[in-house]
């Protein structure tokens, strides 16, 4: 009797550990303020590893602010203030003491507008590697090729690596920016409306890429495009006026939302 | 009908203003070049000036102008860039920043003759260097620095914010982002700003009268040892520049052909400044093309 009880306890613990291992980021009671503006209100959610989590909601609902708090890009805005915790492994990302530079190496970000540096394709990719002391040409070449392949851009640019990145099309530039993040071998990728400035063909390439990338990375994507969220994400979070209204499996959110506001939004009644 | 007439009148007035500016410039340039260009020849550009006889050249003065300019820019550009980076990237809005900004503005608007007096006091007398290239260059640095700081700050601010974010989001430090992304992106603007400032420095006379002096020792252009007193490279020798020479020849020159020398020197000065402007534009455009790969 005693023995079996112990076993179930152990199993319970093991199960809990396993669940915890599946969590990439555990956000608890996150509040973000810009001056007097309460932009994100008491948001708690757990983001799973190797899944695509989509953040949807109308403009100004706080989803981008939420995303940018994960890699502390909000620090750049002097009036911003944050409380709550974002647990990543055994550190709280919001801790004032942590090394933000090291954090951003592990949590990459791709922005709405493609922002390659006005340098060659090759130098865009080696920029951060060189900062971290990688100087050997052979190693750099390898990482460049690997990252470009992962970003499904290698075949298009392999013969023109030393041309300016600005000579690429918008879609190619955005995939280059994704490749550039991948050079740092991050664990998590934050995508802030990565396809909103692109045409439909370039968009679908980015979407295919995201589905490919989730095998290796945890991806959080902010999108305005509801079809996109339903096509590529495993879980969806709906934000409204800074609050997290509903968070669940994408299929459930889009077919059977529990909240009326979610239903109104995805059926196009506002936003 | 009324508004149409008003529109026509306004267009006419603005056109007249623009035409006036162009005419004044063209007249001035035409006059100086017309009188000066005939004087300019290789001998005039290279031979030393004479004190009493006719037929002197502007060789040492021309060299002095470029040399002082070079020394000035070697001091100004790093300081200006540093100040510009601080103002654009590190300065937090507040009292200190606004004091710095006001200081820069006041410094930029100081009359150059006042800076010349300051240079005389500090760089000539206090340091004991006397009239020298170094005193002149330091005075010109003060004259030039506020504009260079402004220029660099604006150039760095003009780099799109997403470039800054891209650098930071990759896990590189702020300083690395500044060094490898922001400054290179701002470089064409900074460079053309520096060259335009060079034109200003090149033509400056008042700030140099009491700092670099009105004389040039006999120079031996075969002696490139910077510590030798008759070497052109010696920064502790007095050096009359082209602009100062024009003033000196006109106001206290004893040579019979003072008018011709002044005309020729003015033409050389104007052509040099014009060249600075053209080079600044061409170079800026060229580098911009190289960086952005636009055709």
Automatic annotation (TrEMBL), chain B:
InterPro entries: MetI-like, MetI-like_sf, Phosphate_PstA. It comes from the Bacteria. The keyword Transferase does not apply. The gene is pstA. Keywords: Cell membrane, Membrane, Transmembrane, Transmembrane helix, Transport. It is a multi-pass membrane protein. Signal peptide: none annotated. The lineage of its organism: Bacteria, Bacillati, Bacillota, Bacilli, Bacillales. It is found in: Cell membrane. Its main location: membrane. Residues 62-280 form the ABC transmembrane type-1 domain. The chain crosses the membrane at residues 12-34, 66-87, 99-123, 129-147, 181-202, 260-280. The keyword Transferase does not apply. This is Phosphate transport system permease protein PstA. Belongs to the binding-protein-dependent transport system permease family. CysTW subfamily. It comes from Tigheibacillus jepli.
